[in-house]
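Before going further, learn to read the protein records used in this course. Taken together, the C-alpha coordinates spell out the fold as the letters spell out the chain. A record is reproduced here so that you can trace the correspondence yourselves:

***
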Amino acid sequence: MKNWKKIAEANELRIPEPDLDRITPALEALEAAFRPLAKDIPHDVEPAVAFYLFPEPVE
Protein backbone atom coordinates (compact mmCIF):
# COMPACT_ATOMS: atom_id res chain seq x y z
CA MET A 1 0.00 0.00 0.00
CA LYS A 2 1.28 3.44 -0.87
CA ASN A 3 1.90 6.04 1.81
CA TRP A 4 -0.32 8.81 0.44
CA LYS A 5 0.82 11.36 3.02
CA LYS A 6 4.45 10.94 2.00
CA ILE A 7 3.48 11.09 -1.68
CA ALA A 8 1.66 14.39 -1.10
CA GLU A 9 4.62 15.73 0.87
CA ALA A 10 7.17 14.63 -1.76
CA ASN A 11 5.14 16.37 -4.47
CA GLU A 12 4.89 19.51 -2.34
CA LEU A 13 1.09 19.50 -2.55
CA ARG A 14 0.71 21.39 0.76
CA ILE A 15 -2.51 19.61 1.69
CA PRO A 16 -3.48 20.38 5.31
CA GLU A 17 -3.04 17.42 7.68
CA PRO A 18 -6.77 17.15 8.55
CA ASP A 19 -7.61 16.95 4.85
CA LEU A 20 -4.97 14.28 4.27
CA ASP A 21 -6.38 12.29 7.19
CA ARG A 22 -9.82 12.55 5.60
CA ILE A 23 -8.86 11.55 2.04
CA THR A 24 -6.21 8.90 2.78
CA PRO A 25 -8.76 6.13 3.59
CA ALA A 26 -10.54 6.77 0.28
CA LEU A 27 -7.26 6.58 -1.67
CA GLU A 28 -6.32 3.36 0.14
CA ALA A 29 -9.72 1.85 -0.66
CA LEU A 30 -9.39 2.79 -4.34
CA GLU A 31 -5.93 1.24 -4.53
CA ALA A 32 -7.15 -1.93 -2.79
CA ALA A 33 -10.04 -2.22 -5.26
CA PHE A 34 -8.08 -1.52 -8.44
CA ARG A 35 -4.66 -3.09 -7.73
CA PRO A 36 -5.95 -6.68 -8.25
CA LEU A 37 -7.62 -5.62 -11.49
CA ALA A 38 -4.39 -4.16 -12.82
CA LYS A 39 -2.68 -7.55 -12.51
CA ASP A 40 -5.15 -8.98 -15.05
CA ILE A 41 -4.34 -6.45 -17.78
CA PRO A 42 -2.36 -8.22 -20.51
CA HIS A 43 1.20 -7.01 -20.98
CA ASP A 44 0.58 -6.11 -24.61
CA VAL A 45 -2.15 -3.57 -23.77
CA GLU A 46 -0.90 -0.02 -24.08
CA PRO A 47 -1.78 2.34 -21.21
CA ALA A 48 -3.79 5.49 -21.87
CA VAL A 49 -1.21 8.23 -22.18
CA ALA A 50 -3.46 11.24 -22.60
CA PHE A 51 -6.81 12.49 -21.47
CA TYR A 52 -8.60 15.75 -21.94
CA LEU A 53 -10.09 17.84 -19.21
CA PHE A 54 -12.30 20.63 -20.46
CA PRO A 55 -12.47 23.80 -18.35
CA GLU A 56 -15.58 24.36 -16.31
CA PRO A 57 -17.79 27.22 -17.49
CA VAL A 58 -17.26 30.45 -15.59
CA GLU A 59 -20.32 32.35 -14.53
